[in-house]
Structures are given as C-alpha cells and as structure tokens.
Amino acid sequence: MRILLWHVHGSWTTALLQGEHTYLLPVLPDRGPDGRGRAETWEWPESALELTPAELGDAEVDVVILQRPRDLELCAEWLGRRPGRDLPAVFVEHNAPQGRIAEMRHPVADREDLRLVHVTHFNDLFWDAGTTPTTVIEHGVVDPGYRYTGELAEAAVAINEPARRGRVTGTDLLPRLNGTVPLRLFGIGAGAMGGIENLPQAELHAEMARRRVYLHPIRWTSLGLSLIEAMHLGMPVVALGTTEVAEAVPPVAGLVSTDVEVLRRGLAELVADPGEARRRGCAARATALARYGLDRFLADWDRLLAEVAA
C-alpha cells in the first residue's frame, strides 16, 4: 500500500514507518511544517520516500493519513483529490482537546467520509467528533532495548519547548519537584532552561537511562511517547496523574499522583533506593512491551488501513 502522510510527530511516525508499506512524505525546500520530509534525528527505512508537491500530483496514493486540518487543504491542492471523497483518508488526532468541555468539538466532526483515529481512549472520550466514526489505536514504539543503568542520582525529564508550553507541560512544577533530587531536562528548546538540547534518539535514550528515575510532570497533553520510551528503557516512572497516565503506568512501575508533595517524596525515595528503582523499572518495561509494543501497533494500523482503503 502507498500511504501519504506528513512528517508531524517524529516518534509516532518512526513507529508507523516500520510497517510493510511505501510511505510518501511531502518535502519543501525550507523543510517547514508543510514539508519536513524525512527526519534528521531518527533513523527511517528506505520505504519512506520524499516527494515534492509537483511529484505528488502524479503519484499513486492508496490512502492518506491526515494529522492537521491543513493537511486536508494541502492534499486537495497538491493531489487534486479531496480526502475522504476522492481518496480514502484517516485523520489521526495526537492531542488532547483544549478549552471548555462543552466546546471540545473536533475539526473533522460530522465527516462520515473520514475515519478519526485517537491515540488514547482519554482523547476519544473528551473530543466531540459528532457523527465521524472513531477508532483508538494506542501508541507503539520501536523498542530501544533495556538500557537502564540508573548510575546518576538524578531524575530525567523530557519536554519539548518547556518555557513556551509552561503549565501545559508542568514546567512550572519543576522547581517544586527539584527538592533534594536534581532534575536533568531534555528536549527541543530545553537549553534555554539549562537543560540538554535536542539529541538524536539513540543518544537521548542513552542519556535518559543513566538517570535513576523518569519524571513526567505533564498536566494536559496526550500520552507522551517519551514516557513510553522511558518505560521501554527500564526506567521507573514518577508521573502526574492526568490524562491517560493512570492507564499507562501501573503501581508496580512507579508512582502516579496529582499531589505534587507525594510526587516529590516518591522521587526522593526512588533516587535513594537503587534496588527498588531497578525493580520498578523492570516492571515498567514489561508493561510497556505488553501494551505499547510495535507488533500490536502495526497490526492495528494494517487492519484499519485495509478497511479504509477497501
């Protein structure tokens, strides 16, 4: 199957590209949001092909995976085909809705010609899709392997653009959680806060796994892939109990709470007890492999794409 999709979320796309299809990635000279093409910090297979808008006009496409409302416009403009009407289409919603609960209407609500795919059950519950048919396909990640050493008595935190996103990503909670446990911040734009700038994925995983605990202070986003990747690495997790986190992190894998003081104490206890941290990290890895394994993720997508394209 030949699948058109935009490079929007690198980690999610990395997992999807492991399937047995040909993936067409729009590319523009500036490699901006509408045409990033192939990734620079992830290793992607040769089946991920870059095509310019002119080349897409003549390309054979079996199904399009949309991830932004703008993708609907670009597909119609560049291919001369309307998603859902002239071309089988799926819209993937990566994010939790913003705003008042009564106003959380999805941009593709009441589009019976599309399939709306949510990455968590929480998102499916909160978004109002109207009559648009919805499906939940939970995340899957490429297993980086068990790499935990926990040699550094620190907590790793991965947040992209922590200063700009502020309360959404719980950046404001970091000083309160720091306490007696040093925090090491990773992610795009983290350098502005004294953290480590964006690293290639393999280097990021290696650096995270040296820290004793993974801290997930996110208030209101979808389930972060960095959390799932940390669990795959074998890291114990201390996480704010919001959105889908309570479903993803069982008690044996770490600590989940909405009480910042409970999280602060939990961080300190795990950092002070390397043996317990390692035990909980092993449980976290087992959980991640069982629920967020790549084989399940790809099988779910293969079934959906075959159904939509039929």
Structure description:
The structure is a single chain. With 310 residues, the protein is α/β, with parallel strands linked by helices. Helices cover 35% and strands 17% of the residues. The protein has two domains: 2-140 and 294-309, Rossmann fold, CATH 3.40.50; 152-291, Rossmann fold (3-Layer(aba) Sandwich), CATH 3.40.50. The strands form two sheets. The chain has a seven-stranded parallel sheet with strand order 3-2-1-4-5-6-7. Strands 9-8-10-11-12 form a five-stranded parallel sheet, sandwiched between helices. Helix 8 (225-233) crosses helix 11. The model has no long low-confidence stretch (mean pLDDT 94).
For the biggest β-sheet, the strand order reads 3-2-1-4-5-6-7
Count of individual helical segments: 12
Distance between the terminal alpha carbons, to the nearest Å?
11 Å
Percent of residues in helices comes to 25-40%
> What's the β-strand tally?
12
Tell me what the CATH architecture of the largest domain is: 3-Layer(aba) Sandwich
CATH class of the largest domain: Alpha Beta
Overall form: globular
Low-confidence stretches: none
Total individual domains: 2
Question: DSSP strand (E) fraction?
Answer: 15-25%
Quote the average pLDDT: 94
Alpha-beta content class: alpha/beta
Series of H and E elements: EHEEHEHEEHEEHHEHEHEHEHHH
What is Rg? Answer: 20 Å
CATH topology of the largest domain: Rossmann fold
Main pleated-sheet profile: 7 strands, parallel
